[in-house]
Amino acid sequence: MEILDAALDGLLVLKPRVFEDERGYFFESFSERDFEKLCGPVRFVQDNESMSSYGVVRGLHFQRPPFTQTKLVRCVVGRVLDVAVDIRKGSPTFGKHYAIELSAENHLQFFIPKGFAHGFSVLSEKAVFQYKCDEFYHPEADAGFLLSDPALGIDWQVPTDRMILSAKDRLRLPLTENDAI
User: Fold this and answer.
1) Which own/partner contact pairs does 22-27 have at CB distance under 8 Å and 24+ positions apart?
2) Minimal CB count within 10 Å: which of 52, 95, 131, 160?
3) Please, what's the b/e burial string for 4-22 (b: 16 or more CB within 10 A of its CB; e: otherwise)?
4) Is 181's pLDDT higher than 80?
5) Which residues are catalytic?
6) How far is CA 85 from CA 8, 17, 60, 94, 147, in A?
7) What is residue 167's DSSP assignment?
8) All structural domains of the chain
């Protein structure tokens, strides 16, 4: 596994060693031993998977303390634009984002530590997205902010009129007006 630069302190892009031949491919998507050497100790307790169609945008989500989450995410079918926004109070990069395309073809994984909001947009006809979390989902701690917040300047690579959002995500407030942060 190789670490690629993710531009914001704490975020890591992981590139696995992929073995390909006439049968297809094989790679270790997670090894606790190797992961800890590269990223430090994290105890993942929950795996999630979603399937979405083109134009679906999920995010920008996080859990409020004390239930903040570290995530390791990847796309196993299709292509997504994955985005993390720094919401660490006092961070020099507060409100800045990093975006990367994750796909079944590139096999990249994105490590998002506590202190970041997360979201993704589906760029292919269909996408299956998986993520590991180091904290269980707590509905009472669920939070998020407006993914189209102009102050963030995120290009989701999906035309606004083609975006498919949940009812909850359509009602979110901009980052600076969000009292959950």
Assistant:
1) 27/107
2) 160
3) eebebebbbbbebeeeeee
4) no
5) 61, 131
6) 9, 28, 8, 8, 10
7) H
8) 2-172 (2.60.120.10)
